[in-house]
Amino acid sequence: MLPRFRLLAAALAALALPACTHSPRSPMASSPPLRTVSHVDLPRYMGDWRVIANIPYFAERGNVDSVETYQLRPDGTIDNRFAFRKHSFDAPLKSMAFTAEVKNPQTNAEWRVRFLPFFKVAYLILDLDPAYQWVAVGHPSRKYGWIMARAKTLPEETYQGILQRLRAQGYDPAKFAKVPQTRAQLGGGAP
Predict the structure, then answer these.
(1) By residue range, what is the domain housing residue 141?
(2) How many CB atoms are closer than 10 A to CB 140?
């Protein structure tokens, strides 16, 4: 169990350090802050979100069938469960549980996800379908980003539109990679 804890701690540190390394000479210092959506209806946002694409990093590289699940608690915090399989739809389903809190209650679009009692990572809702069918989530460093949907797939036109709006916020769309949600997307035939 200890090696798993160390791996998780290393992954979390890798996510958090870019947010803490703003220096006047860093490229992030010259980029304007990310703009979140103006308002998120938290009860509508809750539930399952399929990870359609992300900027791959070691903790999520090779994942398939990835799902983020959010559940609002009575105290206003959010249960956050991440489930995934590694490399194959036949691999065992793995999951991790975290909590999140809304950092900006005026918009509900800026969260902090708590991995450990003392460790929080920024979660910014940058683009959201009015019908709550897809979302783009970012991190202030722009080194991490996720496109998620309620369904296992997004129309290509919708996906490209999201990427273009992320480009307008300073993201490089070429860094996003699709995350297989069906066997066909992985080259394994039927969904």
Answers:
(1) 2-18+37-186
(2) 18
